[in-house]
Amino acid sequence: MRRHRVPAVAAVVAATAVQALLGAGTAHAAPPPGACPDPEPARPPVRAQPWAQQALAPQQAWPSSRGAGVLVAVVDSGVDADHPQLARPGKVRAGRDFYLKGTLPGAFDCVSHGTGVASIIAADPAPGVGFHGIAPDAEILPVRISDRDVGGQGESLRIDPQVVANGIRYAADEGAKVINLSLAGHEDFAVIRNAVAYAVSRDALVVAAAGNAQRDTSTELPSYPAAYDGVLGVGAIDIDGARLSGSQIGRYVDIVAPGVKVLTSARAGGHLYADGTSYATPFVSGTAALVRSAWPALSAPEVARRLMATASPARGGAGSPAYGAGVVAPYRAVSDGMDVGKPGALPAFVPPPPDQERIDRAAELAKTSTTAKVLAVALVAVLVLAVVLAVLLPRGRARGWRAGRANTVAAEPAVIEPPEQIFLISGK
After folding, report:
1. Which of 96, 209, 368, 426 has its CA 20 to 30 A from that of 417?
2. Where in the cell is the protein located (predicted)?
């Protein structure tokens, strides 16, 4: 994943601007002393509505669902719960830090990655700011497994697999109905695979990034945890609907979402633009929260099928290894009246009893029609006979009823035979 940075000098002014613009309160999720050796500064606020929110228009689904009652775990670099669009009481739980030893909470962030992911899922709308999350009433469970980005290519190799597994299991035990994993790697770690299976068994929908390591379209690179059973793998597209050049291609890509120059919240306030499947993944997780709130009886696999079935068409067509089922569509995912149950058996066909009155009436009509046709033919014959008699009777009276003579047949013309062949040059 890549983030677009602003100069540090501007960031100093940005924090004050954000607080004035959004009414930030007293910080309560500041990093513990020594937890962030080089924390990223605040960013300037961005007022314009980002293209991703315009394209997906999640607010169309809000009359039916805003994600209330759904806990979404963000297994990442932590979440800055002081960001004004995440600071509403009850929005972000304390969570847990699995990266640093001890019993620290997960509700702080040194690098903005986890904060950005959480904000795409559930950031509150704010006056004068176009950015907001997909499911603003969802609750965030921050699970901290890293203090830096997960790698320039989105790989998870720099993170201890056991730490990732511990975070996933913790999220499942805390009752998270959606678990966002904005990380990807080429190795299949048994501890992570088993942790994902544990979460799936607890009816958590695990949503994972497809990864950003694709260099060409001729090969299918491995990607874990996206390729694990029960995981919804997410690829990234740009504003034109084209695949992000690095977004990995494979059978594990189930769906795509905006992942190029998408706007996110930054730690300590403000916003920043970022690229990568890491940031496409929370658009799907937020939509899953909308669905799980609107359709609480659906299981995690049914929610996944619903997300794919309601996806908007993408360039690759349905089932493409680059685009999956298509582009996530929050409004359709919530509102489409899908029947997830098995179709009921049709009753045996029983023909209705014959309508004798109708049959008799049809027979009478047929008889009347036949009689009318016979009378019509007889009438025509009488008319023809009358016309013939009207022509012949006067002529017969004029001849005295004598037979007429036929015209004399002309004699056959004489046949003129051609002359014998004439030779213009006599032979010798």
Report:
1. 426
2. Cell membrane
